[in-house]
Amino acid sequence: MVLKMLFNKLIVILSILFLFACSSTPDDGETAEQKLAQAKRLRTIVIDYNLKEYGPTEYEKAETSYEKGESFYNAQNEKKAKKNLTTAISYYKIVYRKGLPSIAEQKEVEVREEKTKSDEIKAGVAMKEEYDLAVAKYDEAVQNSKEADYEESVTQFDEAKTMLEEVYTKTLEKKEKAEASMEESNKSMEELEEKARELEEDE
To answer: Is the model's pTM score more than 0.85?
Structure first.
């Protein structure tokens, strides 16, 4: 009987400890400020790409926890801020993952638009090597999307877009320099022709 009572007490104690562990937020070493920054980044992505429709329930929970976390952070309550922001991050991540196919689709459109801009100014000729690398990265992203590896494709679409933006900017600079040089040459030629005419008139 005594052993049974002790055993029951032990079960109760372990249950209480388990519930306490589940209800508390593990300390991952990050500050409330870092948690807030991470939550803000995820929230921005979810809002910018209109992903809440892919997880409306999780989105509402994320927003509620985010608002509480931000409020506690402003009140300098580190513990409660971290707990709520950690919850918000978890829910935002769920929404983000559910909406990844949509993000990949939207980013593919953005890269295509950037590629079109580069093609219009003949970037593939002016900066062939850099342009080809960017297009290769884009092709890899498209392939990964087809294979449903959306997380990888989103990263690659971002890389391809950045590469194409650099190619476009540098090609535009080369084009402007070439046009300025051509204009200067034409101006010099006109001045020479004008001087030649003046000399002919003097004769």
So the answer is: no
